[in-house]
Amino acid sequence: MKRMTRTERRLDAAARRVLERLPSRGAGGVLVEVLAFGAKQAWACVFGGALLAVLLAARLWYPDDVPLARNDALTLAALAIQLLMLVLRLETPRELRVILLFHVVGTVMELFKTDVGSWTYAADGVMRIGGVPLFSGFMYAAVGSYLVRVYRLFDLRFERYPRQWVCLAVAGLVYLNFFTHHVLPDVRLALFLAVALVWGRAMMHVRVFRARFRMPVLLAFLLVALFIWFAENIATWSDAWSYPDQLDGWQPVSIAKLGSWFLLMIISVALVTWVYPAQLPDAERGRLEPVADSRGRGTGSGE
Asked: Among 49, 51, 230, 268, which residue has the fewest nearby CB atoms (within 10 Å)?
């Protein structure tokens, strides 16, 4: 999982040749770490960034009088981006398994949410399932792509990470509530509490360039959710989809959606760690082994 692709190894070697000539201490050393952090984050976001650029370009320049509907053009462009990621060896076939999981989970939710009117897409195009154009699945895939790439680019390791069956159980309840809250009481406050209890003690070890630092896992969830919320504002401005209060004219997505994206992070992380179990920090393990195996048995998480 942590091995880079051949293309990434070449880029990493070139970047290291430059960075190793830069200061390692003081303000200069801090600046090097900040630049490396930004570069790795940008590289991890390459799928989502490319997709967001396509959405913006379609909003600004896609002509109205061409035979190919804009939604179909977006689907073909998203498919081309995914193929290029594989052909250029920016993603591995193994990572594609996780991304396909995001496609399925996201598309099922899209079908339900559009049916109950939570948001809507333009009605043009034939590449769709019901009211959901197929490019929507790639937006969830972009989240999956980011998570699997950031997992190995930053060589993420975890302390006190919850057992796998607990992660999957909470994620399942979160996913279920996205559907049931339309007909049953919304239990998201209880879910926030469950997330805090399950992941509250977990810490994440992040390797940048020379430095490795620790941060609470819940803070990482929140920061990624905030980033997705910003991207969502760009996407809705681009008319990729619209919420009910945006039908008469675009306005910023409600900050309340940040809670939904935070809960979606729980589903996303559970999917990634289901395929690629969380690993212990180097100092806490005698050999490289997962915090919890696929059957949920702990292997030294520190709990």
From this structure: 230
Domain that holds residue 246: 6-284
Label residue 29 exposed, middle or buried (CB < 10 Å: 0-12, 13-18, 19+): middle
Residue 170 within a domain: yes
Confirm whether 133 is domain-assigned: yes
Q: Is residue 302 part of a domain?
A: no
DSSP three-state, residue 248:
coil
Whole-number Å distance between alpha carbons of 173 and 177: 6
Q: What is the pLDDT of residue 2?
A: 53
- Token pair belonging to 236: 């809705």
* Reported pTM: 0.86
Encode 41-64: b = buried (16+ Cβ within 10 Å), e = exposed: eebbbbbbbbbbebbeebeeeeee
Domains in the chain: how many in total? 1
The tens digit of pLDDT for each residue in 281-297 reads 875 554 434 444 434 44
- Indicate the angle between helix axes 257-275 and 135-153, nearest 10 degrees: 60
pLDDT at 1 > cutoff 80: no
Cα separations in angstroms, 96 against 109, 147, 259: 20, 12, 27
Tell me the pairing of strands 132-133 and 128-129. antiparallel
Helix (H, G, I), strand (E, B) or coil at 166: helix
Residue 27 is predicted with a pLDDT of: 84
What b-and-e string marks burial along 147-165, b requiring 16 or more CB atoms within 10 Å of the CB?
A: bbbbbbbbbbbbbebbbbe
- Cα distance between residue 84 and residue 76, in whole Å: 12
pLDDT tens digits, residue range 206-242? 999 888 889 999 999 999 999 999 999 999 999 999 9
Residue 187 in contact with residue 177, Cβ under 8 Å?
yes
